[in-house]
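Try this one yourself first.
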């Protein structure tokens, strides 16, 4: 492809929903399909970026030419991201990371018992990967997050932009029809610390990816 501000940039994209094991046959996950992350990876690749796609389980085929790293749990994802971030320019965290995981993951299948109609599963918070990566950020490295909100979209999203020290945040209101998890379409607001919010129209995820990557590309050019 012709030269773009992203040509040769080393980009990590994470995608899919992480899985937290309960026992050998059960896990906790979420509704993420991975479509938005895969669309971003494809878009980055088409603009000449060197893309590593770190993917939690999905039903999707990775774009050709992209390096695929497969992960399952949040812990796996955290390790893969932290390692890859050392030699990358841009991190796009499109993965839907489990916020909680079972305190105890057991080796044997949990059995129903005749004398107990209730089972309590104790959960503990997972580490915030983006927050941890922010501490490793060198000048010139960019981190980009996604936020799925069901209320107070702009307030919550702006708070995430600041607390995770992001260069750009893609926020979507997942309570609206056609927006966010699992579907083929999305509608997002792109937030940046030094830029007015940009609200896209409802469109297919590849079109949304183009608009997000356009903003990232313009940032790279401004800061280049
Ligand atoms: O705080 P919240 O989960 O809404 O933030 C979403 C953003 O943070 C996404 O980009 C997601 O990939 C990332 N995240 C993370 N580590 C977590 C939870 C979310 O990096 N434990």
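Now uncover the answer:
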């Amino acid at each position: 492809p012709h030269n773009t501000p992203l040509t040769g940039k080393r980009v990590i994209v994470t995608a899919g929903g992480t899985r937290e094991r309960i026992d050998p046959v059960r896990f906790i996950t979420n509704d993420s399909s991975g479509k938005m992350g895969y669309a971003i990876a494809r878009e980055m690749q088409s603009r000449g970026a060197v893309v590593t796609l770190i993917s939690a389980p999905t039903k999707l085929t990775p774009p050709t030419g992209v390096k695929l790293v497969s992960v399952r749990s949040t812990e796996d994802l955290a390790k893969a991201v932290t390692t890859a971030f050392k030699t990358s320019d841009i991190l796009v965290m499109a993965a839907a990371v489990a916020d909680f995981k079972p305190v105890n993951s057991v080796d044997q299948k949990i059995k129903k018992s005749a004398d107990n109609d209730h089972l309590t599963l104790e959960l503990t918070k997972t580490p915030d990967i983006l927050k941890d990566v922010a501490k490793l950020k060198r000048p010139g490295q960019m981190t980009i997050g996604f936020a799925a909100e069901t209320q107070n979209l702009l307030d919550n999203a702006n708070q995430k932009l600041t607390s995770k020290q992001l260069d750009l945040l893609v926020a979507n209101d997942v309570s609206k029809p056609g927006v966010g998890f699992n579907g083929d379409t999305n509608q997002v607001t792109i937030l940046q610390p030094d830029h007015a919010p940009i609200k896209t129209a409802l469109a297919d995820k590849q079109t949304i990816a183009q608009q997000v990557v356009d903003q990232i590309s313009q940032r790279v050019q401004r800061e280049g």
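Discussion: The chain has one domain: 10-103+121-223. The CA atoms of residues 117 and 136 lie 47 Å apart.
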